[in-house]
Amino acid sequence: MSAHATTGQHWDTSVAPLLVAVGCLLAVPLPFASYFQYHSLGMAVGFLGIGVPVLLAGIAVWVQEGIAQKHDQFGYSQMALPIFITSEVLIFLGLFTSYWALRLLAPAWPPAGSPHIGLTIPIIMTIVLVTSSVTYHMAEGKLEEGDMGGFRSMLGLTLLLGVVFLGLTITEYSHLIGEKFTPSANIFGSAFYSITGFHAAHVLIGLGTFIAVLLPALKGKTNMDFVKCAGVYWHFVDIVWFFVVSQIYFW
Questions:
Q1: Which residue from 56, 78, 14 is spatially nearest to 203, judged by alpha carbons?
Q2: Among positive and negative, which fits the CA dihedral 225, 229, 231, 232?
Q3: For the domain bounded by 77-249, which CATH number is listed?
Q4: How crowded is residue 222: how many other Cβ atoms within 10 Å of its Cβ?
Q5: For 197-235, what is each residue's pLDDT tens digit?
Q6: Does pTM top 0.85 for this prediction?
Q7: Nearest to 195 by CA among 140, 242, 134, 148
Q8: How far is the C-alpha of 165 from the C-alpha of 123, rounded, in Å?
Q9: Quick check: do 1-74 and 77-249 share a fold?
Q10: Phi/psi-derived region of residue 110, left when phi > 0, alpha when psi is between -120 and 50, beta in every other case
Q11: Strand partners for 3
Q12: Would you list the domain boundaries of the chain?
């Protein structure tokens, strides 16, 4: 919520923060509690089915409101983004620290009963994600040159690559679950799905942001501040993936 002076004090209101908060509640703690505490897959899927669309809708509405903001208005995006990224770094650091402790203190790793996790899919995923960072950087360049058509094309390609990355994640999960390797299989399963799943959730949020940027761009509207902030977030997700793939798959 922001305030600015016109003839008096005027408050801009938005439903987006409420949608994001409700979406996070329905998409994260409730599915986890439903599956791990109450052992109800149906409840977990139900909460996810409602929570994920609500979360993405909240992100889309919030970003589009920012894009529609007049350029002469002061925006807090570029000031707040480093704070947000720092908080995300600390969360990932907590996950990795827990994993390192488990890995180094375990008598054998991975624990008995863990399947062999191939490296082919993670390598392909790495190539796809790095390529998506390159295409988004190209999209930013096109926008700075005033080439809206080129911007939309490169942004669309980035979006497609992100979808491919998530598709590969689902493919890998399906294969491992088929081998009875689930989050409850052993401590490695819990760590594997927590870290890779948390990263995949960030990719999903990035795609929601890209959609929110792309839809107004199809009508010739955009906001450079949001485009750059979305790019910084996406490059951050890309960098984190190098830690994920090196620690989980190659170590």
A1: 56
A2: positive
A3: 1.20.120.80
A4: 18
A5: 999 999 988 998 898 889 889 888 888 888 998 999 999
A6: no
A7: 242
A8: 11
A9: no
A10: beta
A11: 11
A12: 1-74, 77-249
The one-letter amino acid at 164: V
Position 143: which residue type?
L
SS (H, E, C) the chain: CEEEECCCEEEECCCHHHHHHHHHHHHCHHHHHHHHHCCCHHHHHHHHHHHHHHHHHHHHHHHHHHHCCCCCCCCCHHHHHHHHHHHHHHHHHHHHHHHHHHHHHCCCCCCCCCCCCCCHHHHHHHHHHHHHHHHHHHHHHHHHCCCHHHHHHHHHHHHHHHHHHHHHHHHHHHHHHHCCCCCCCCHHHHHHHHHHHHHHHHHHHHHHHHHHHHHHHCCCCCCHHHHHHHHHHHHHHHHHHHHHHHHHHCC
Cα–Cα distance list, 1 to 4, 68, 178 (Å): 10, 15, 47
Residue 186 near residue 102 (C-beta atoms within 8 A): no
How many residues comprise the chain? Answer: 251
> Could you read off the pLDDT of 120-159 as tens digits, one per residue?
999 999 999 999 999 999 999 999 999 999 999 999 999 9
**Options 1.10.287, 1.20.120, 2.60.40, 3.30.420; which CATH number does 1-74 get?**
1.10.287
